[in-house]
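A quick aside before the break. I want you to see a complete sequence-to-structure record at least once, exactly as it would be stored in a machine-readable document. Don't worry about memorizing anything.
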Amino acid sequence: MDSVGPYVLYKVPATVQTLTIISSPAMKHLHIPSNLSASEMYITRTGINSIHFEENISLNTVIISPCELEQLPFTLGNLKKLAFFRISNSQIQVLYIQQLRLAKNVERLMVVRSRIHSIIIDSPERCCDRLDELDLQKNLLTSIDFATFDPLHRLRVLILADNSIEMLVGSPSNSALEYLVLTNNHIKHIAFCGWNPLPSLISVNLKNNRLAKEPSCLENLSTNATVYVTLYGRTMEKFVELKNRSQSKLRFCLTFFPCE
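That is the input. The structure line, written in tokens, reads:
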């Protein structure tokens, strides 16, 4: 069966709260009906390349992995109670902020272990009033323009770890941002001199990049913010020297000298 239409899932009993579709590599198309009363859906090891959601007021969690999807489903916005959406090991190469506008009820969105190399913004207009966390770790990103995330004005957690990021452009402007995670990338230089005030910022994690020196203009960050860095190519003696004279906002990390 390469297609599951609404007439199939229409018969799922109302008592079922978790629906799992597993090990169906021949399945290419999936249609979720409006009457489905399950609150959680797990789609695992399928060949799905398209999925359609009818308007639904029950589903709050959808997890898909792996799959052949090349973009986020345009009908995510039909899931009125959706709080958590995770897709991994997909064929998605470009993330369009416009698609997040359609999924306006999502609180946590994860597109991980996929092929994303670009993030494209359609308009600076604010959106996604409920989006609290965006996780794009383990993709193929090589540069980040923070202006791309400007519409996500309620964003609290942004995870960009385990990509191949070398360049950071601009400054986040998300006033609600608390945690920015950039670990395990290829960043060689970062300065906070031109950064916008981020009053809620708690942590910027830059561990395991290729930084040769500590970031400058730390005073531009909020008083509660801590920056975690691993300095690339430094001796243990130089590391201890830097740690002893570091500002309170900076935490140096090594595999043999972990962050405090």
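Two observations worth writing down. Helices lie at 6-9, 97-102, 236-245. The longest strand covers residues 203-211. We'll return to this after the break.
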